[in-house]
Design a protein that fits this description.
DGPFAETKE family protein, alpha+beta, Alpha-Beta Plaits, Dimeric_a/b-barrel, flat, 113 residues, four-stranded antiparallel beta sheet, YCII, 2 helices, two-stranded antiparallel sheet, single chain
């Protein structure tokens, strides 16, 4: 069985939500995680902070800037780590994800070094 990262990208189509609506969305994410746990696929997950740092090599020097940049179309907002036999099986775990209402999901297999 392989390990995959389910990367949750946020896009500019996220609506302004009331506190009650936010709690309902959180409940949907929790239920989705519970379904993956019940299937024996869930390994972990986290939401990423909205701010961070970006490091770039520049002529032998490292530049550090604030990021991610707000002008980008989508930002990585969080991730889930799951076990699956194939990309197709990992994608199947995402078909009922509440995140699809708010942005794209990227799936990447972790290559063990």
């Amino acid at each position: 069985m392989d390990t995959y990262l389910i990367l949750l990208h946020e896009s500019n189509k996220i609506p302004k939500l009331s506190p009650e609506e936010i709690q309902a969305v959180i409940a949907r994410y929790k239920a989705w995680g519970e379904r993956m746990r019940a299937a024996g696929s869930y390994l972990g997950s986290n939401k990423l902070e909205d701010t961070g740092r970006v490091l770039r090599g520049d002529s032998g020097k490292v530049r550090i800037t604030d990021g991610p940049f707000t002008e980008t179309k989508d930002v990585l907002g969080g991730y889930y780590m799951v076990q699956a036999e194939t990309y197709e099986q990992a994608a199947e775990l995402c078909r009922d994800s509440p995140h699809l209402d708010y942005g794209p999901i990227e799936i990447r297999r972790i290559e063990v070094l």
